[in-house]
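> example.struct
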C-alpha cells in the first residue's frame, strides 16, 4: 500500500502554468485524497467510490436506487453497478419497495455497517494526513469555504 508521500511523489511537482488555477488545485487535491483513501480501504474490499453509498446508507434510512443516485449525484447506471459490487460483497441488501414494486430499497447488512465503520476511520485518517500541512484553524476555514461552494 503506497503511503501519502509516495502518492505525492508519483504525481510530481505542480505545473506552474496550472497551479495558478484554483479548479486545477481542487482536482489535484481530490486525486490525491482518492488515491490515498483507495489504498487504505483496499484491504476492506471496497474503493472510495463505494464509500459514499455506504455512508448515506449508514444514516439508517432505506433508500431506493434512484434516491441514492440523486443524493450522491451519480447516474442510474453507475448506481446499479456500484450496488452490484456492494451486494456481491454482502455489504448491502436490495429488497422490493412495498410501495413501488418497480423500485428497490437498499439497506446495509451487518457486514456493511462494519465495513462502513472501518472505512470511516480511514476517511478520517485520509483527511488528517492530506491536510497535515494546514493548522486546525486553516482546516476548518478550508472546510467552511468548500462547503459554501455546494
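> example.seq
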Amino acid at each position: 500500500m503506497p503511503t501519502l508521500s509516495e502518492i505525492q511523489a508519483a504525481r510530481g511537482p505542480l505545473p506552474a502554468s496550472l497551479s495558478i488555477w484554483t479548479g486545477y488545485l481542487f482536482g489535484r487535491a481530490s486525486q490525491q485524497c482518492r488515491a490515498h483513501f483507495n489504498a487504505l480501504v483496499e484491504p476492506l474490499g471496497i474503493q472510495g467510490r463505494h464509500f459514499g453509498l455506504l455512508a448515506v446508507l449508514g444514516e439508517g434510512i432505506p433508500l431506493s436506487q434512484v434516491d441514492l443516485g440523486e443524493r450522491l449525484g451519480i447516474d442510474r447506471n453507475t448506481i446499479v453497478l456500484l450496488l452490484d459490487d456492494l451486494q456481491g460483497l454482502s455489504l448491502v441488501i436490495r429488497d422490493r419497495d412495498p410501495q413501488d414494486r418497480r423500485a428497490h430499497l437498499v439497506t446495509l447488512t451487518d457486514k456493511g455497517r462494519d465495513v462502513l465503520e472501518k472505512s470511516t476511520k480511514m476517511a478520517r485518517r485520509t483527511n488528517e494526513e492530506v491536510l497535515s500541512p494546514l493548522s486546525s484553524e486553516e482546516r476548518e476555514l478550508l472546510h467552511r469555504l468548500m462547503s459554501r461552494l455546494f
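> remarks
The chain has a mean pLDDT of 92.
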